């Protein structure tokens, strides 16, 4: 198994903390755990290079535009994974994933990212774009276009043509927004799928684990919370326990560009956990159940993208359509057919036990 | 076959016209063909009566609230069908359907309708509510809550608790809004399905048929346009050709509460046709193709509700998922699982022939 820490300067080893929100102390303290998530696939040409050749300093400057910093990084043969002050970044040969929470300005990076791909890698055209997020609990705290999905659409349209934009879930409760673009002349088809669980309202005893009061560091937290059991043996884990609270984890599966990433906002007043993976598991439905068993949220949203060539994910989507998740009541279920993918969106609420 | 015209006063025989829009003549002339559609199912109790006992004068006063009038009516054993100055109304024992176009104020009727059902029929509780519409081309011309779906949601929430509200289709193109409510303790399950086709951008030669210039009256129009071929033999057809343009048709299938309703806004600048049916056809997919062959729209939206007990509609939904519609490119496809129904929403655009 190849595992190398990238040798350029980082914040690793220093005391990590999430960037302060406007009210980071006192009764008004609030942190928006829900992430903005951007995934871009580039069209590989005979003369193009890997996105991984983009220099580290360019990457840090790119992330500066979003107002977040690299805390640590790990790599395997296929992908460079970064834990950020707010969430994560994954760079593989032709896929760039940036996930940022809080009041970060993710969409401010898009133009520069496309320039970097062109300048350093000769990656001149985009195959697929996915920009998604849960509705924010406090949209008025967001900066720039992130205050509303309509403004985010307009900003994305500045960079991409013919994107489609959807709202999944009832407009009257938690919902999930997606902007997506598929190049009409895409010569390549990616065998790919992504499972995301966006969980809210965690029990206090689960929240407590992700604090400096209970755990000394990230690795202790990973073990105590049972997160090490959520990934296959041999996974390279890179985790950070923030001071005073909060947890981020990237996992790289051996010899592949498969990753797991988990981010915990443990304040009980606005607790939030995201779990995301593109693991090649036959039954992502079982994986989802394991994650729920770990975090025990009162509510969660589930999204599962499956490309047409991804039979395991298709089977899991079918499961979701036909079966319930034990202990939960499904309050929304939607399918959407995209150009080369199917997406399932579901929302669940914990059943109330009446004894 | 029982067919009786309701004997109370109506506008039947007078020259029918759609209510004038603020700019009904001249270059600014515009008419919003896209209908607001409300369908309410009431919970039948041992002592309750049919909705059809509501007196005619109460019905006309109810429709006054929406700013539309009854033009003509037909009945069979199961249902009373009304052609309105703007679209249609169907009243059966426990189901009330009101569909109104232009700048009508459909949601102003809801409170009074619930009162009438309670007072005259002892129908005290609602089983299901569906309120839906296409996005308006000119929302700024709409009155009251109809100017935005958010305001419509708020108005519906004044009358119903725990409704869910969805936007289907890309926010960047034509889309379709749905507010729906399912009583959590519904003791009855309806075997039901509804197919709707909302068609825009019709060829000029199709538009021309639905004008007083080409046709003398509704029946001629029905025949010339081939609409009589879209319904089974024995269907009671009630149609109106408006002056100078526009067409509305209700069809009642023999001995059942199955209906077909078609409304045409034929002005080429903003042409629009809606087709709606709850016909008990095994293959609604074939029915959709016949309708498209008749109106040849450049774009259309299709919605198909199927209750869990409606195998024909389920099979048609599966068809839509797996197959294309000849001559059209699918630009959106979404499924949504409701409490006792599945809904498929799709949008299609005509393929361009390159010779």
TrEMBL record, chains A, B:
Pathway: Amine and polyamine biosynthesis; S-adenosylmethioninamine biosynthesis; S-adenosylmethioninamine from S-adenosyl-L-methionine: step 1/1
Site (Cleavage (non-hydrolytic)): 86-87
Needed co-factor(s): pyruvate
InterPro entries: AdoMetDC-like, S-AdoMet_decarboxylase_euk, S-AdoMet_deCO2ase_core
Claim: Lyase is one of the keywords in the record: yes
SUPFAM superfamilies (UniProt xref): S-adenosylmethionine decarboxylase
Family indicated by similarity: Belongs to the eukaryotic AdoMetDC family.
Name of the protein: S-adenosylmethionine decarboxylase proenzyme
Lineage of the species this protein comes from: Eukaryota, Metazoa, Ecdysozoa, Nematoda, Chromadorea
């Amino acid at each position: 198994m190849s595992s190398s820490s990238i040798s350029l300067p980082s914040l690793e080893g220093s005391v990590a903390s999430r960037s302060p929100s406007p009210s980071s102390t006192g009764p008004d303290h609030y942190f928006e755990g829900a992430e903005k998530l951007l995934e871009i696939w580039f069209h590989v040409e005979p003369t193009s290079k890997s996105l991984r050749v983009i220099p580290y300093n360019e990457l840090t400057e790119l992330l500066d535009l979003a107002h977040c910093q690299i805390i640590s990084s790990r790599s395997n043969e296929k992908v460079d994974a970064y834990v950020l002050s707010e969430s994560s970044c994954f760079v593989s040969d032709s896929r760039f994933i940036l996930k940022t929470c809080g009041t970060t300005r993710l969409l401010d990076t898009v133009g520069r990212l496309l320039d970097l791909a062109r300048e350093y890698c000769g990656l001149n055209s985009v195959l697929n774009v996915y920009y998604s997020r849960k509705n924010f609990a406090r949209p008025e705290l967001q900066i720039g276009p992130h205050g509303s999905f309509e403004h985010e659409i307009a900003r994305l349209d500045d960079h991409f043509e013919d994107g489609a934009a959807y709202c999944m879930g009832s407009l009257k409760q938690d919902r999930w927004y997606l902007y997506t673009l598929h190049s009409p002349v895409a010569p390549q088809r990616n065998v790919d799928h992504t499972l995301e669980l966006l969980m809210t309202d965690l029990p206090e005893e689960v929240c407590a684990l992700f604090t400096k009061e209970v755990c000394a560091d990230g690795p202790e937290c990973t073990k105590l919370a049972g997160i090490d059991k959520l990934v296959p043996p041999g996974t390279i884990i890179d985790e950070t326990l923030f001071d005073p609270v909060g947890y981020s984890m990237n996992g790289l599966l051996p010899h592949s560009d498969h990753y797991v990433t988990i981010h915990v906002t443990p304040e009980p007043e606005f607790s939030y956990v995201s779990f995301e993976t593109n693991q090649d598991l036959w039954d992502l439905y079982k994986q989802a159940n394991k994650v729920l068993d770990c975090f025990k949220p009162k509510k969660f949203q589930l999204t599962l993208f499956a490309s047409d060539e991804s039979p395991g994910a298709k089977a899991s989507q079918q499961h979701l359509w036909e079966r319930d998740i034990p202990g939960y009541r499904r309050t929304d279920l939607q399918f959407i057919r995209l150009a080369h993918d199917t997406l399932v969106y579901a929302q669940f609420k914990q059943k109330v036990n009446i004894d």
